[in-house]
Sequence to fold (484 residues):
Amino acid sequence: MDKQPLNNVILLADCYKVSHHLQYPPGTTKLYSYFESRGGKFPYTVFFGLQYILKRWLVGQVVTKEVIQEAKEIYNAAVLSDDLFNEEGWNYILEKHGGRLPIRIKAVAEGSVVPVKNVLFTVENTDPAVPWLTQYLETILVQTWYPMTVATVSRIHKQLVHHYNEISSDDMSLVSFSLHDTGYRGVSSVESAAIGGAAHMVNFKTSDTIAGSCMLRKYYHVDGVAAMSGPFSEHSTVTSWGRDRENEAHKMMLTKFMGRKFGCVVDSFNIWKCLEDTFGKEMKDLVIENGKKGGSISVRPDSGDPVEVVLKVLDILGKGFGTEKNSKGYKVLPEYIRVVQADGINYKCLAAILKAMEENGWAANNAGFGAGAALLQRIDRDTQKCAYKCSFAEVNGEEIDVYKQPITDPGKNSKRGRLALHCTNGVYTTVKASESSEEQDQLLTVFENGELLKDYTFDEVRLRAEISSNDIDILKFIAEDASK
Fold:
């Protein structure tokens, strides 16, 4: 066998779980667990990414004789024991279920925007002989935290852009193109880039992390790509011309990409001279000609204080190319020239820039933004305090509500019993399943006994995640966050 341990479903678990089948009460036939955000940085979560995990790791026959033997060898070596691995249990799954996992997973629809402290998905065994399987799958299923958290962070950015465009812009069509993902090089792996890049695309349609579109093509029915990029210079393509020929580098961009949308990094040497003299005088006619042919240029500063730099760049471009007042009384540059700030962007910095633009009379759609590490990497499972906990069991025919209640940290108290998720007038609440009906419950069966039962398209996901009237007050959140 071509050994690829990371494709072995039995090895997608923390080592200590190998002995857990020996630790549950005798007579246990059912374990039921749930996943939630217990709180965290943001007041809601955008649920996304479970479908990828299910399709990638759990659908179909995932247990074979070879998989069992490989896992046995590795775990026996890892835990220094040859009597802990549950070979009998895995052989049972192979023989009784054809290697398909006897598990039922119910989840809220992907793209849903759910306040924290609500159940997002539940897991339970469907065969009373393998109750241990519910918690064995915790490790891989909890990794939903990453796409979910990226989608949440990205949407917070979108709320800010949407808010300031509503105040100051006539054209809202650019909102979904206002935050560019530049995080490919800043994440820990290609898989992280694919998952995180896709999660950002839930909210925005612009990205340089092509791995995100590749993931969505395979797992979320995307034809083509889910987000776009375009020609853009980097420092090497400018500085390789030398300091005295920087203007030639920019002029070459205009010549090569005339009539197209493209961007130029402008801070390689003296950004103010570059904007005032090269773009505003020497190349002004070419910039205007590019606009007449349907193109536009985004100038990208990449150093300095983002708030101060963006305002100064706007002022220079306004003097060089003129501005108009829109219907809301804010200044707008000609459509053929814009600013893109991609250095140092996180939601706090974005809020500061957009606020400063508004206070100085600039419409929000004069600027676009890019984010990398702060978007895809500067997060962890505790950003939204994601947790997977057992809340119900059946032991010797008795139904038991299971919970934890640590005296040292009430924030880690867990929910009890079987759960349901209700949504009334856009407001989500978690209730006991006994207090709910199938029609009321927002948790839908997405996986059962090795089969995927819900297969969402990315268009559906995006539609659910759109900005709505039920959204949090984004400025209030930013103010409260700043005071912490």
User: Anything to note?
Assistant: The chain is about 35% helix and 20% strand.
